[in-house]
Design goal:
Elements lengths: L6 E4 L5 H12 L3 E6 L2 H10 L4 E4 L5 H13 L5 E4 L15 H30 L4 E6 L12 H24 L3 E7 L18 H13 L4 E3 L2 H11 L1 H8 L4 H5 L2
Parallel strand pairs: 1-2, 1-4, 2-3, 4-5, 5-6, 6-7
Helix pairs in contact: 1-6, 3-4, 4-5, 7-8
């Protein structure tokens, strides 16, 4: 896929992976629109990269999504919708009754899964009208093997992974020109996991891998350890589950 000259909308683009993606897409000659809930982060991103268009918008909010579509339409539309925004609620023990746990799971599903479907549906006809267009959905290494301490987050990303594969097939059957990519990151060094000492890769490395995959039309883009986990899980599922969920988490799960 040729990315130069394309207009790309990146949700959750005010920091972390989204901001790094905005930077690298600008460097290769794309026009970039970013969204996010935090206005101060959007303002800082705009100051750092004046070519950006920044629109405050919550990826899990229906009214925000409709307003975003109208603004983007007024700007001339987009060629690529990059659903990068995602949330992870601090882990809870599934074996303990807790209303906050349910609320957290609902929030994760609203942003990580249902919000993506909403935006894809809103922008679908616009994307179909373009000669070459794409949707990029960010799932996770945890859509291959779940994390016991991030169970509902894993579930939201697994739901998105199945939806992404189905959407790709549906659009192919319809003969639509919209390409559907799935990005599967490992743990990435962002603010969301700043307190964890696990192995991480940099947003820069992740986005370079994404752009390389897009250019080669690799519809499933596995980066770093995600490649190994995918292979190991097919051959040794129990071993892979243990690697993602080492015994030390037993202590974390106890009340």
């Amino acid at each position: 896929m040729d990315l130069k000259g394309k207009t790309i909308l990146i949700t959750g683009g005010g920091s972390g992976i989204g901001l790094e993606a905005a930077k690298q897409f600008l460097e290769i000659g794309a026009k970039v629109i970013i969204t996010g809930r935090n206005k101060s982060r959007l303002d800082a991103a705009k100051k750092a990269y004046p070519m950006l268009i920044a629109i405050q918008s919550d990826a899990g909010n229906e009214d925000d999504a409709n307003a975003l579509f109208d603004k983007v339409n007024e700007l001339g539309g987009i060629d690529i919708l990059y659903n990068n925004a995602g949330v992870g609620v601090p882990p809870k023990n599934l074996g303990i009754s807790n209303d906050d746990h349910y609320k957290g799971a609902t929030y994760e599903m609203e942003v990580n899964y249902l919000g993506v479907i909403r935006l894809n549906n809103l922008f679908m006809e616009m994307l179909k009208s373009r000669q070459e267009s794409a949707i990029i959905n960010t799932t996770s290494i945890l859509s291959i093997v779940p994390s016991l301490i991030e169970a509902t987050y894993s579930a939201s990303k697994t739901a998105l992974a199945f939806y992404t594969k189905s959407l790709r097939a549906h659009l192919w059957i319809l003969g639509a020109s919209v390409k559907v990519f799935e990005l599967l990151p490992p743990l990435v060094d962002t603010d969301m996991v700043a307190d964890r000492d696990d192995k991480k890769i940099s947003p820069e490395k992740l986005v370079k891998g994404l752009i390389n995959g897009l250019r080669k039309d690799h519809y499933t883009i596995r980066i770093g350890d995600t490649k190994l986990v995918y292979i190991f899980n097919r051959l040794f599922p129990k071993l892979t589950f243990g690697l993602i969920n080492p015994k030390k988490i037993n202590a974390e799960l106890k009340p």
